[in-house]
């Protein structure tokens, strides 16, 4: 085909020219193909003419041979020259002509076959040409539709560009207004912080002044009572030596004495006069004074009056040696396990959104209650120190609190914006701490169900523990952070070699156990805030970002589960691996719990299995 036509305009004349160009190209191709077969057609026509002439000559010869009376003079001079004189020559010539006729017939057949094939090809090409003409017509119509669509789209684009310009103007105005509001908010927040600081300073100063005033009033009242007591007349039935045995060092306290108290005391010791205070009355007076000082100290730290009673410490924990009970506890992966303070109950929770309570009786676990109310997977469970409540962290961005007298969620602590990975009770009654993947640690008032304080942390929080004075959090950025309960700043950071998966504090609150993704457990001395021991073992591998490791109840051992289902127990004092328990779990062990009695250990895994271990 000839070169492509030039680009056409949307007008009808251009489309007609394009069509004429295609038709002209097709006709040119037909002429070219016809010229290539013109020689064959002409040769075939000549052959047909020669064949007809030969048939005529052959017929005349055969007639003359059958009728010898035919005068040879009537023949044309040209034909008479071709007739031989002898029958043999005639027979030879006849055979020669017959061979030529046969060859010409064969050649004619081939040419006829070629002509038929060429006719078929021509018919096919004509059909194809018609199809192409129809297709060209359809393409013309499609081009018209596309041109119309293009025009509509162009109009829509122009309209959208106009709207975008208007929206851009509005957006610039809104952005400007936003910056103004943010500046006002920043100024207001700064001013509010200043006002808050001033109010705090005033409150502190007022409290100091009131304490001083109360102290002065109390001292004056006690001094007046002592003065009145010294002016009373009483009979003293004791010897001079007994009077001298009174503990007069108490008078060295910061108590203002009357001006004449020295003379009165001296006079009392010089003689057993009736003006001296009795020993029992003096001792009782100073006893009241010391009781006042004690009450005042307690009033300054009222939080200590609302703490849970200390749980009895385990004298000695026994290292588990065998599995005594195995069961499939949940419908999905089990993530959290905890013994009650009495060691009679075990709580488990997992991806099936249910917390199950198990009674430990006769070396077996008996399901006694199911706690429901979570909307997503449970990541950890915790008993309150009193054993009457259960706190669970969940992937539904909340923590749930149950009372053991009901199976519904008692309260839901909402406020996190991502998965809650840990929830722990504080030593103060009705308070708890949660850590989340939203990079916050929150303190809660469980009585009100309200957040008391939210601490922003630099990385995802995987676990938290609480001591009497600190909140300790473990993070994905391979650091352990200490937060003072009275301020929101971080007081200490301890780097480790892997992502922290769990934290656990010993009963004396002197050591911290951390498990991390570098396949190690570390014991941190809280007095010095440094790593004291690092536990490793062949075959131990931390299987997940929330794998939990714990101390034994007496703090002498550390236990953790491995990715291959084995349990490893280390001696905290020597750092030596005491025991490796294998064969009961076929999946990664997520967490372990050790009863406060030191008798049982419970382990859970990703294949819904719960195993009860004992040393007996």
Q: Mind explaining what this structure looks like?
A:
This protein is an alpha+beta fold. The chain has three domains: 155 residues; 95 residues, no CATH class; 293 residues, Methylamine Dehydrogenase, Chain H. It has seven helices and 28 strands. The strands form seven sheets. Strands 1-28-27-26 form a four-stranded antiparallel sheet, with no helix packed on it. The chain has a four-stranded antiparallel sheet with strand order 2-3-4-5, with no helix packed on it. A hairpin with a 3-residue loop joins strand 7 and strand 8.
What's a quick, concise take on this entry?
With 616 residues, this protein is an alpha+beta fold. It has helices at residues 12-36, 38-66, 77-82, 87-231, 240-244, 261-270, 279-300, and strands at residues 322-328, 334-339, 345-350, 355-361, 364-371, 378-383, 389-394, 398-403, 411-414, 420-425, 431-436, 440-445, 450-456, 461-466, 470-475, 479-484, 490-495, 500-505, 511-516, 520-525, 530-535, 549-551, 557-561, 567-571, 577-581, 589-594, 600-605, 609-614.
